Amino acid sequence: MRKSKSTPSVPLPPGFHWTLVLILEIVTLGLFGCVWAIVQALWAKKFDPSSKALSLYIVATVVMVAGEILELMHADITIQAAVQIGSALIATFGAFSVKNSLARYITSVEGSPTYLSGLMTIVLGEVYLQYHMNRVRAFQSRRRERDLAPAQ
Length: 152
Fold this sequence. Notes:
Elements: H1 18-27, H2 31-47, H3 53-72, H4 77-110, H5 118-124, H6 126-148
Helix pairs in contact: 1-2, 1-6, 2-3, 2-4, 2-6, 3-4, 4-6, 5-6
């Protein structure tokens, strides 16, 4: 199995069960999802310094807050909708940036090319990405146990 030279210096992806991410996102009306997406983007930036995910998520959050302010100000519904759709699109681009970095990370860890679904990234975002981050953590844990096991 091949290993990337940069992989050992990169911490494991964030570990939080994907169902808890989903439940907390529902309970907090999406606020936890925004925070967790930024946590994932921070990890992606550590592995892939060229990742634009963190910047995109921050811009999406600022645009989303601007949309909420417009709503409180009773601005035209068309403007509100355009701002909210823009925020969602920017966040989706951020999710794809994390997806691409995660796919490269998985490929470097497992030594074989990895495909992550674009449709699932659009539909489930950080929940889908967290599922795969947990899968990588489990893979690396099994590998570590195997490497530390006494030779027979």
